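Task: complex structure prediction.
Instruction: return structure tokens for all chains below.
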Amino acid sequence: MKQYDHPLTQDLQLSCLLYALSDPFRLEVVRKLALCQPQPCAPLQDGRPKSSVSHHFSVLRKAGVIRTDVVGVTHMNSLREQELESRFPGVLAAILAAARAGDVPA
Amino acid sequence: MKQYDHPLTQDLQLSCLLYALSDPFRLEVVRKLALCQPQPCAPLQDGRPKSSVSHHFSVLRKAGVIRTDVVGVTHMNSLREQELESRFPGVLAAILAAARAGDVPA
DNA sequence: CCGTTAGTTCGACTATAGTCGAACTAACGG
DNA sequence: CCGTTAGTTCGACTATAGTCGAACTAACGG
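Output:
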């Protein structure tokens, strides 16, 4: 059961975090993850091909935004909220709040 | 005395803001601007050619991060702090705090 | 074992962003 | 007016990011 490498909290870069969150699709993934964790990739695909989705999860993983745990055949993703909070206090929380507020209510 | 167009506060996009701040040079400019406003472009150039610097200021301007006022021959830049705070509460403040903390002390 | 599920990796393509020199521009100073 | 200052615009280049189909992989279910 191969697992993923995740960068150490102390090695996270603010600019990489902001970059990872600056893509609307990734921001949306993060917003949805915040509502329900952990969650596999599949329900977050939003109609995109798996290879694209996989790429975006990889960006989020490398920026330290999410952790991915392999559980059987599914890959469970969760936000590294506490770690991000300790490294960049308030940043993720404020961005999540703004993302929620900017939500277009259907 | 031609002035610049600045996007309206209500039209600002979170992803554009994060994108604008995800470039290390631009983040540095914003960090320095926060310490001393308003400020012309020149002291923030950091050895780069003027055309590159101008490009980055333009990105920050279009994302709504800075306002540029033409005063005589210099262009005075300031952060749109209150507007960003009302649109995306806490976001810029948290990012600035993290940027300050991440400063490499010389 | 074999099929299925869930996701990754590869490779080719496209589009966009950043870089920088050169020419330009707008306002001031004398 | 003419030079200077401060920055913009243009254009060409390079590099990187995102997209997606195709082939692959790892674990489970029966």
